[in-house]
Amino acid sequence: MHLDESFEERKRCVKLVPIFQGLDDEQTGQVANLIEMRAAQKGEFLYRAGEASGTLYIIHHGQVRLTRMGESGKEQLLKVVSTGEVIGENQLFTVSVHESFAEAAQDTHYCAINHQDMIDLLEEYPTTAVALLAEMAKRLEDSERRSASLTTESAAQRLVSYLLNAEDEEGETFELPLTKKDLASYLGITPESLSRKLREFEDGSLIKQSGRRKIKILNRDDLTFQE
Questions:
Q1: Which domains does the chain have, with CATH numbers?
Q2: What is the spatial distance between Cα 14 and Cα 142, in angstroms, rounded to a whole number?
Q3: Spatial contact of 209 and 215, defined as CB atoms under 8 Å apart
Q4: Are 217 and 223 in contact (CB under 8 A)?
Q5: CA pair distance 184, 24, nearest whole angstrom
Q6: Out of the domains of life, which is the source (predicted)?
Q7: 104: Cβ contacts below 8 Å, ≥ 6 apart
Q8: Could you give the C-alpha distances from 163 to 125, 149, 153, 174, in angstroms and in order?
Q9: What is the pTM of this model?
Q10: What string of H, E and C letters represents the secondary structure of 91-104?
Q11: Which DSSP helix (H) or strand (E) runs through 80?
Q12: What is the mean pLDDT of residues 73-100?
């Protein structure tokens, strides 16, 4: 769905994105002129696997689930992106189709920019090109680390790593950004196994759960060695 948009609103969308933060106000305005603002209701797809790619998406506010279908036909959560994050950059330099599904996890506003317009910007602003390459390298590293985790670590170890990373980023008390169903899919375990492990950690005084998603790490050292 297309939105009524203002130039200043488009500029605010551009400023959310780390790869554009090296631009001055005039340059930010040039990027904003190329952007189209759109909205997706919860459950609506920005794109589906198999569709031609040709757009870079910036999440203005809301959340988008990136998923793919496994060989067994079961949905696998790849990532949940939120405000200020970019998707569609993997297909930026090639003519290809999307390999994943992008579904709004909640009502979401986002900005869209044509791939060719984005390539022209990268040629004009090398600092943005370098920032984009750094972001793509980080995502590749994260993907490789996650793939290794799924094949070499137990369910408990994957959950522990996720909780400790969340604590590092948010502090000892944090709110899970995913539903427990999505978190289980992301970690490659069943929702039942996730709930059971969280209860075990809580019974062992390693964590404390409150509400639907809030968690406090009580004993980081002992939690680290859970298998």
A1: 1-134 (2.60.120.10), 153-225 (1.10.10.10)
A2: 24
A3: yes
A4: yes
A5: 42
A6: Bacteria
A7: 40, 41, 42, 43, 44, 45, 46, 62, 63, 64, 65
A8: 38, 14, 15, 9
A9: 0.76
A10: HCCCCCECCCEEEE
A11: strand 75-82
A12: 84
Q: How confident is the model at residue 203 (pLDDT cuts 50, 70, 90)?
A: very high
How far from the centroid of its chain's Cα atoms is residue 168's Cα?
A: 17
The answer to whether 63 and 95 have CB atoms below 8 angstroms apart is no
Confidence of residue 185 (pLDDT cuts 50, 70, 90): confident
| Structure letter (DSSP) for residue 52 | B
Is the pLDDT score of 80 beyond 80?
Answer: yes
By C-alpha distance, which of 218, 215, 212, 223 is closest to 180? Answer: 212
Return d(Cα 67, Cα 54) in angstroms, integer. Answer: 19
Q: pLDDT, tens digit, for every residue of 152-182?
A: 688 888 898 889 988 888 888 898 888 888 9
